[in-house]
Amino acid sequence: MNSLKLRTAGMAVSAAALSISLVACGSSGPAGTGASADSATMWGLTGGDQPVFQASVDSWNKAHPDSAIKLDFFANDAYKTKVRTAVGAGQGPTLVYGWGGGVLKSYVDAGQVDDLTGFLKDNPDVQGRYLPSILESGVIDGKTYALPNNKVQPVVLYYNKEVFEKIGAEPPKTWDELMALVPKFKDAGVAPFSLGGQSKWPDLMWLEYLVDRIGGPEVFANIAANKPDAWSDPAVIEALTKIQELVDAGGFINGFSSIAADSNADQALLYTGKAAMILQGSWIYQGMKKDAADFVSSGKLGYTPFPTVEGGKGDPANVVGNPSNFWSVSSKATEEQKKTALEYVKDGMFNDENVQSLIDSGAVPVVTGIEDKLAASPDKDFLTYVYGMAKDAPDFTLSWDQALSPAQGDAMLANLDQIFLKKITPEQFASTMNATIGK
Amino acid sequence: MASTTQLPTTPAALPQPVTTRRRPPKLGRSRPNFLGGLGGWLWLAIIIVPVYYVVITSLKNQAGFFTSNPMLPPAEPTLDNYKLVLENDFAKYFTNSLIVTVGSVVPALFVAFMAAYAIVRGKGKFLSWTNNVFLLGLAIPLHATIIPIYWMITKAHMYDTLLALILPSIAFAIPVSVLILSNFMRDVPNELFESMRLDGCSDWAMMWRLALPMTKPAVITVGIYNALHVWNGFLFPLILTQSPDTRVLPLSLWTFQGEFSVNIPAVLASVVLATLPLLVIYVVARRQLLSGLTAGFSK
Amino acid sequence: MSATTTTPPRAPAAKRATDTRRTLEKGPSGWLAVPALAFFMLFAILPLLGVLFLSFTRWDGLGEIKLDGLSSWNTVLADPVTGNALLVTAKIMFFSFIVQAPISLLLGVFTAASQKYRAALAVLYFVPLLLSSAAVAIAFKALLDPNFGLGPGLGLPLLAQDWLGNSDLVLFVVVFVIAWQFVPFHTLIYQGGVRQIPASLYEAAQIDGAGRIQQFFNITLPQLKYTMITSSTLMVVGSLAYFDLVFVLTAGGPGYSTRLLPLHMYLTGFKANDMGAASALGVILVVIGLALALFLQRLGGKNRNASQLEGA
Q: Do the Cβ atoms of B141 and C289 come within 8 Å?
């Protein structure tokens, strides 16, 4: 009797629990304008693109209250650490922000992101709007897993024209000119180069360009292909040696290894005149346009390609950086979320409004047929420069830390940091990195 | 906790908090100690300069920060930075921190108190084994287990919830809580328990009506100690949560640092705001807080 | 471990057991300890076994966990960064101890005295206790900035060093910031210890004509023996846990100069995504923690306070 009662009670409880969970499942209907727990989610990066993504999603949510998107922003370094943890936990966002390359491949290998090849086939308009070479960066083993979502990001050598005028110097065209400028700026009490060394990836821009100028893009292609001893290539050794010569000459600002690029402190040193030059991505133009509007609009900001190296094999028009950032669609998202995400990618992204707001923010969208719009922008000098740089580059090498596997990328950044600090020699760097090949 | 009926009233039997048990040594009665005084003021300077810098900088505007002398107070103090921080969901992070702290400390105290009572009053292999497990736990560096904890939390679908922070926080607060509580509980005279027992009280009643009031200073100590740890904890939130909805204050400081980019005054305003609640508690309850901590660790 | 740790608490318990057996039928039920034990087993002991298990696997945090024998251990033990992390950890442990211990002891004695101004100073001394490691690290990062921080502000070139970017200096800066944050806590412990020293000892010494310094060495120091052991254990074992402060302050840099063992584990696991190797590092961390606790336990001797010093 008693046990029977208990059992009935237990059944009632579990039935109640079941009905609760059923209700919970069935409630994913219209969610009003506010994004609900079932909405598609999107994580973006703080900084230059933040208002652009925000505006785009806001207007999407206004027009599509039934399939609203919830958008959150993270700082770059924090994002890179956390997104993987979240994706690994199966709780990443519906739209995963990425850079393509080795990190994307690891998501693909783990089955965490959806194959978008079919989506592109069904939507030729989407396929057609991108610059083809950039679309290619989201392809792994012949299938598309990531679609470009913002702007081309070549690495550019910026300089402070005012500081250059003060000492009567011209931006360097060759490595020797660059080295010759170092003592001049130092005598004038200005640091030749700003560098966000604590973030480590800005260090990498130096290595990427130098290796390309000295040995051409094949050198890194070999490394990325995991060829044995690829890091011992003479071009890598020479590039590292040149970096250490520049460090020895006092080329980088005092305290560079404690400056975080994440906090934009590196670019602040350029526009406050404490440093004459900085090698950074095209995206810092957006940041400076916001934080130092006068400096940019009064034409004090100069930009130039990375200098050539005498006797080097690389084409001076070659570019390193990020072809774009990308959206991938999480395989763990619900069908509803995926549908919303892809509809946004199709109609919400790179519509006229979005393209224009990207251009207004000081960036070059990765779509075709925007020459007129770029030319009409107040930032047309910089934008057409960047657009031309990306379009005319015989080779556009993806940032190495993104191209390689995460384990290799991390080891590379840590060891490169050691090079800048002169804790290891170029040969030690090469042998340590050779040991990571295939990891 | 309201029942005080069974409380013994003989003052001699009551263990007093250690701080009041003995008079402090009257070291200063003789000639003044100049060297000691000098050292004392020097250390004060070391403590105060960073605090002063944080406060004055948080009152500067960004342009002022780059151009003014970093150690001088701003010519035109502004609260804009505080406004900016408050507008950036500060209240939400504060609430999250509060939920996690209360949600961890209260259950931890509850289970640890029961365990301490059982360990001190009870006997048998099981309890002494339990005590050993907790002692062992004190020597485990918390960080070492974070990877399996991350795995467990994701498998339990608790990743990015406040519960993901609360559960391991409770577990890691238990060993030190049991240790301090049981040390205090041993000081409760056995006769009191016996007389209650003779009155027909159960262990459950003795625990709440005798042991708890008698070890109140220890309970407060343990509560404060754990609350400080959980409130200021960084590793669990860093690894086990993700979205702004579950962000707690220490993590928000770290993210503010990225989001406000070069706006150092705003970053430091967030530091001030995150510390303010504890500062208020400190000002209000300084005596209990300090004597509680002293009692717990210098016993 | 168990032999030494259980002796102190068991001695009084056993005595009480014989006392109470005469009057009481039985003590409280062991069930009262079960909730605490269950929590602790689930979220501390189980993960502890988990970390050992994971150290024999290969897992990138995304895909499947695959058994992989000793390969993670081989990676970790062959990696010079591991040795460096151990060295950095040992250095920070050593230097923080020799900086913090004397300062906390002296400040504890200083604040335990009865003068009003000392009590007032003590109120301010304890402010760092309230700040989170993240807050402390962010504040010092701004303060130590070579271009916008304290040095240029005071116009003292000596203070305008590249504190966090110079790999020879940064370790000492970290030690200093750790001391800034943790000395107040240890001062509190010593203050409590000093206040427990019976005043009669000092009175007797004064009658004998002992000076302040003699009193300090002949009475204060010996009387503080167990306080010192407690505080030292907390300091030493605690230095295995300086993760958040260093993570926010230097992220282990520049280079590897402040990459402590726990930080190295975190970066290996969550940045390089090698959870197997990170777990092996976790096991090393646990072994060191246990060994240190055991060692200090021995040092403490068979005193009642011995159980206290486990309070790491």
A: yes
Q: Is the pTM of this model over 0.90?
A: no
Helix (H, G, I), strand (E, B) or coil at C275: helix
Cβ burial, residue A192 (10 Å; 0-12/13-18/19+): buried
Which residues of A, range 189-228, sit inside 8 Å of C by Cβ? 197-198, 200
Could you tell me which chains touch chain B, where touching means 3 or more CB pairs under 8 A?
A, C
- Asked if B150 and A262 come within 8 Å (Cβ–Cβ), the reply is no
């060093």: which residue's tokens?
C161
Average pLDDT over residues B28-41: 74
Judged by average pLDDT, the poorest of A34-38, B36-40, C77-81 is A34-38
What is the separation of C-alpha B81 from the centre of its chain, rounded to a whole number of angstroms? Answer: 28
Is C307's pLDDT higher than 50? no
Q: What b/e string do you get for B232-261 counting C-beta neighbours within 10 Å, with b at 16 or more?
A: bbbbbbbbbbbbbbbbbbbbbbbbbbbbbb
Contact B271, B53 (CB under 8 A): no
How many Å lie between the alpha carbon of A198 and the closest alpha carbon of chain C? 7
| Coil, helix or strand at residue A97 | strand
Structure tokens at C54: 């994971």
CB contact under 8 Å between B150 and A272, yes or no, is no
ipTM for the complex shown: 0.82
Residue A17: how many other CB atoms lie within 10 Å: 10
Alpha carbon of B70: minimum distance to chain C alpha carbons (Å): 5
| CA–CA gap between residue C31 and residue C26 (Å, rounded) | 13
Per CB-CB distance under 8 Å, the chain A contacts of B244 are: 72
**Over chain A, what is the mean pLDDT?**
86
Sign of the torsion angle spanned by Cα atoms C147, C152, C158, C164: negative
pLDDT tens digits along C72-101:
999 899 888 899 999 999 999 999 999 999
Tokens standing for residue C202: 């000092």
- Structure tokens given for B235: 């590793």
Q: Which of C141, C147, C274 sits opposite A269 (nearest CB)?
A: C147
CB contact at 8 A, B183 and B218 = yes
The minimum CA-CA distance between C247 and chain B, rounded to whole Å, is: 10
Number of separate helices (H) and strands (E) present in chain B: 15, 0
Chain A residues touching C62 at Cβ < 8 A: 84, 87-88, 106-107, 109-110, 112
Residue with tokens 């928000």: B252
A105 touches chain C (CB under 8 A): no
Sequence-distant (≥ 6) Cβ neighbours of residue B223 within 8 angstroms: B105, B109
pLDDT band at A240 (very low <50, low <70, confident <90, very high): very high
Answer whether B146 sits within 8 Å of C118, measured CB to CB.
Answer: no
Q: At B140, is the secondary structure helix, strand, or coil?
A: coil
Q: Give B145-186 pLDDT, tens digit per residue.
A: 999 999 999 888 888 899 999 999 999 999 989 988 888 888
> Rounded to a whole number, what is the distance in angstroms from the first to the last CA of chain B?
25
**Which of A255, A151, A132, A154 has the alpha carbon at shortest distance from A195?**
A255
Enumerate residues 6+ apart whose C-beta is below 8 A from A4: none
Angle at the Cα of A132 from the Cα atoms of A130 and A136, rounded to 5 degrees: 110
What whole-number distance in Å separates Cα of residue A289 and Cα of residue A285? 6
DSSP label of B246: G
Average pLDDT over residues A363-368: 89
pLDDT of residue A32 exceeding 50:
no
Rg (C-alpha) for chain B, rounded Å, is: 24
Instruction: Give A132's contacts (C-beta < 8 A, 6+ positions apart).
Output: none
In degrees and rounded to multiples of 5, residue A322 shows phi and psi of -115, 125
State the Cα–Cα distance between residues B256 and A313, nearest whole angstrom.
Answer: 44
Calpha distance C249→A256 (Å, rounded): 15
pLDDT digits 0-9 by tens, C232-241? 888 888 888 8
